[in-house]
């Protein structure tokens, strides 16, 4: 059974710092991996999607990498800003099945201090 | 841009009431999902649908049913609401035509059952 873990559960950094969020998964037979952002009381915003054949994806100050063989993904945030404060979730979809169900980690709560 | 909307942001219901949560997407997506999110448990899949009138159970379907009469609309039904169904409910949609079958989420419905 696929399990997704995110470490750390919470992180506080000063503004301007570069940071890395970690995501690990137990079954390497994944179809894709998505990183989401969730603000308090709100829905999920998709940040980056990495397909199984890809090693990384970039969007602005965000860079996500994927290493399927080791079951790991990282989300790198450059030059962090207070507006980056949110919960970050990673989720994987496994091969097989028609709908590619997402399996989520429990998230990392990020606080960027001004 | 993909838009997923949910009928209510906040809902308060009494134990034993029948509750309908509605989700609408405007991108002709085949797949639609209902999740619930609870502190410490993360997001868990309740039901999903890969076509009109088609549905499959997710990880925690007990106490819920769903309806998909039109492609753009997916309803979650609590036949007899109970206090342990107090939660944040999130709807999502995706398409096989999209890159990596990326899932897009609505803003969520915070349901309180008293």
Name the poorly predicted regions of chain B: none
**Which oligomeric form is depicted?**
heterodimer
Low-confidence stretches of chain A at least 5 residues in length (pLDDT < 50)? none
Largest beta-sheet characterization of chain A = 6 strands, mixed
C-alpha geometry of chain A: globular
- Helix/strand/pairing class of chain B, anyone? mainly beta
Global Rg of chain B: 13 Å
Structural class by helix and strand composition of chain A: mainly beta
Number of H- or I-type helical stretches of chain B: 0
Ends apart, CA distance between termini of chain A: 41 Å
Task: Kindly describe this structure.
The complex is a heterodimer of chains A (114) and B (114). Chain A has 114 residues and is mainly β. Chain A has strands spanning 4-7, 10-14, 19-25, 30-38, 44-51, 56-59, 62-67, 72-77, 86-94, 102-104, 108-113. In chain A, a hairpin with a 7-residue loop joins β9 (86-94) and β10 (102-104). Chain B is mainly β. Chain B is 0% helix and 56% strand. The interface between A and B is medium-sized, with 25 and 27 residues.
Show the helix and strand layout.
The complex is a heterodimer of chains A (about 110) and B (about 110).
Chain A lengths: L3 E4 L2 E5 L4 E7 L4 E9 L5 E8 L4 E4 L2 E6 L4 E6 L8 E9 L7 E3 L3 E6 L1
Chain B lengths: L3 E3 L3 E4 L5 E7 L5 E8 L3 E10 L2 E4 L6 E7 L2 E6 L8 E8 L9 E2 L3 E5 L1
Parallel strand pairs in B: 2-11
Antiparallel strand pairs in B: 1-3, 3-8, 4-5, 4-9, 5-6, 7-8, 9-10, 9-11
